[in-house]
Amino acid sequence: MRIGHVIVPAGSLDAQLGFYTRLGLTVKFRDGDRYAALTDGAVTIGLADASQQPVAGRTLLSVQVDDLDGCVAQLVAVGATAGETVTGAHERRVVVFDPAGNPVVVYERLPATDS
User: Which of 78, 92, 99, 103 could form a Cys-Cys staple with 55, CB 3.0–4.6 A?
Assistant: First the structure.
C-alpha cells in the first residue's frame, strides 16, 4: 500500500496549475484540460476536471494497493462501504467510504500494454 495521490477538483486547470506551481510543485504530466499531476518529489497532487473526479467536487486521498478486491473486502469487514469498481485506462478503482463517511479512492494499477 502507498498513498498514490491526492485528487483536487479543478475548475480551470490553467489557473490551478499556476497556483500549485507557484507553491513549488512540478508538473509531472498533463492530459489536456481534464487532468494534471504535480509533485514535490514525494507526494502527487492530481488536478481533475469534473469528468475525472471520482467524487464530484471533493478533495480526496487516493491509495494504491496490490490487490484491490482483497483490500476492499477487508475494509468493508471493518465498517466501510464501497461503491462500484471502475476500470479506467490505467487502473481499477473503488471509492470506499470510511466509517465516518469520508470518501477514499482505493486503486490498483493495470499492467502496461503496448499500443
Answer: 103
